[in-house]
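Suppose a colleague, Dr. K., hands you the sequence of a protein chain of 101 amino acids and asks what its three-dimensional shape might be. Before reaching for any lab equipment, you can write down a predicted structure in token form. Begin with the sequence itself:
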Amino acid sequence: MKGLADFLTELSQKLLGEKCEVALEDKYLNNLSLIEKARLEWLAAISLFNNASEKELVDHAIFNLNAAERRYIFLLKEARKEKERMKNSVGEEELNKENHA
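The predicted structure, expressed as tokens, is then:
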């Protein structure tokens, strides 16, 4: 996921003092957009499966549904991991501020 890689690169640059700002909101919105797109693709795959009548189309619909569902679940898991990393990172920054004060 390119957005996540870019975000982590910017974050590491910030933590190392190489960059002053990290566009957290832009990355967050980009990830939300990817997740919403995956959700809509999953719903479309469900609809295709429910409306498939020919054997070949049913096979395609099953494959498509499985792929869309796995992508959606993957993106949700990655977002949860990123949220946890951000929470830990913010917590570490707060501890560092308190220790230096």
